[in-house]
Automatic annotation (TrEMBL), chains A, B:
<dbReference type="GO" id="GO:0003700">
    <property type="term" value="F:DNA-binding transcription factor activity"/>
</dbReference>
<feature type="domain" description="Homeobox">
    <location>
        <begin position="16"/>
        <end position="81"/>
    </location>
</feature>
<keyword id="KW-0371">Homeobox</keyword>
<protein>
    <submittedName>
        <fullName>WUSCHEL-related homeobox 13</fullName>
    </submittedName>
</protein>
<dbReference type="InterPro" id="IPR001356">
    <property type="entry name" value="HD"/>
</dbReference>
<feature type="DNA-binding region" description="Homeobox">
    <location>
        <begin position="18"/>
        <end position="82"/>
    </location>
</feature>
<dbReference type="GO" id="GO:0005634">
    <property type="term" value="C:nucleus"/>
</dbReference>
<dbReference type="Pfam" id="PF00046">
    <property type="entry name" value="Homeodomain"/>
</dbReference>
<dbReference type="InterPro" id="IPR044559">
    <property type="entry name" value="WOX13-like"/>
</dbReference>
<dbReference type="GO" id="GO:0003677">
    <property type="term" value="F:DNA binding"/>
</dbReference>
<feature type="compositionally biased region" description="Basic and acidic residues">
    <location>
        <begin position="99"/>
        <end position="110"/>
    </location>
</feature>
<feature type="region of interest" description="Disordered">
    <location>
        <begin position="79"/>
        <end position="123"/>
    </location>
</feature>
<keyword id="KW-0238">DNA-binding</keyword>
<keyword id="KW-0539">Nucleus</keyword>
<dbReference type="InterPro" id="IPR009057">
    <property type="entry name" value="Homeodomain-like_sf"/>
</dbReference>
Length: 202, 202
DNA sequence: GCAAATTAATGATTTATTCAAG
DNA sequence: CTTGAATAAATCATTAATTTGC
């Protein structure tokens, strides 16, 4: 239940903010992300990711990488779940092909949308601006900044194959938690390539 | 599988903005990269990639992404070659699944040099090879500018106060890649996450 | 009612596959 | 054919849920 973010790793005496290594979406953030995902636009473009991140930043710690990863994972998971769930609807095919890619440890992800809307983070709530609903701005017909980025969500697209809708996907990456501990050995890079490169330093 | 692989370079009108020609390493760049690769330190850390890129930029067009990709491809390619060769040379009679296309479990990486990015935990121990970052000497014999930028990496990782370090101004974050005004929407994300993010509730 | 131990979810990274430019 | 670039699949590692014993 109440999963308080009571991390003992808080700033002790000289310890720093390096508390958790992996981002955990706040309920609000999650809600927004879910909404966006449902709009069915696949992985947002970088531009959108950035803006989404900016928006979500108002509700807690988050980064573009987090957003990107979230969409990636979300999509992959959805797809797999679909497969696992076996298409027992319209298909009269055998179900012996969808599952068994390899059973090592992959559990049948029955991952349901656990939308724990309970306010867990006290901090979060504290920082909640008087306009809590602001997070939904872009989701609503009011159209905020984020809304502009997702114009194609007409809502009438009740597609069933929301897994194959990606336009692209980044391989972004970034150092992982190691950095926080000072390691930073992970080597991952984004592909800035686009604007940054051609024509710049060259 | 069924990815459409939409060409992200075209605009809606089908008009290309900037032909995306793929980067081609110049001989000098290639030489340096090869040398670095041979130093055998796996994929360089983000920091190093940055510096390498900076250095290589002086010899032609290049980006961090290019460098990163290059290392990635290089490693994969090498591995595959080795596997292939081994398969041919080794037993040509008993084919007991010498190498399935999906055998990561077997840790094929061990055949290579250290994999500095896979096993390190947040513990501040220095059990890992302390000389991991010796890859800086890649250009040793000539010692060009690059050499100068990689001197201070040795043993730094051994520090156990890693968690105390707070001045990792790694926050770089591709500042402007964002202006892909006409480029493509294929975005990529940077590595902000590390420093920039986790600071949350603190 | 808590807290250590376990399990389930899931964020983050790596690897393999594929596509296409030269 | 070589290989840089892009995507998806698989894997890893950590956090949250849940269970269990006190």
């Amino acid at each position: 239940m109440g999963n308080l973010y009571c991390d003992p790793l808080m700033t002790s005496t000289g310890h720093k903010i390096t508390a958790r290594q992996r981002w955990t979406p706040t309920p609000v953030q999650l809600q927004i992300l879910e909404r966006l995902f449902e709009q069915g636009n696949g992985t947002p473009s970088k531009q959108k990711i950035k803006e989404i991140t900016t928006e979500l930043s108002q509700h807690g710690q988050i980064s573009e990488t987090n957003v990107y990863n979230w969409f990636q994972n979300r999509r992959a998971r959805s797809k797999r779940k679909q497969q696992n769930a076996a298409c027992n609807h319209a298909e009269s095919e055998v179900e012996t092909e969808v599952d068994s890619p390899k059973d090592k440890k992959t559990r049948p992800e029955e991952t349901f949308q656990s939308q724990q809307h309970s306010a867990q983070r006290t901090e979060d709530l504290c920082f909640q601006s008087p306009e809590i609903s602001s997070d939904l701005h872009f989701l609503d017909p009011h159209a905020t900044a984020v809304d502009k980025m997702f114009p194609s969500h007409s809502g009438l697209r009740s597609s069933r194959h929301l897994s194959e809708m990606s336009f692209y996907d980044e391989v972004l990456a970034n150092s992982r938690h190691e950095l926080m501990t000072g390691k930073m050995e992970a080597g991952n890079y984004s592909l800035f390539q686009e604007a940054e490169d051609y024509g710049m330093t060259g």
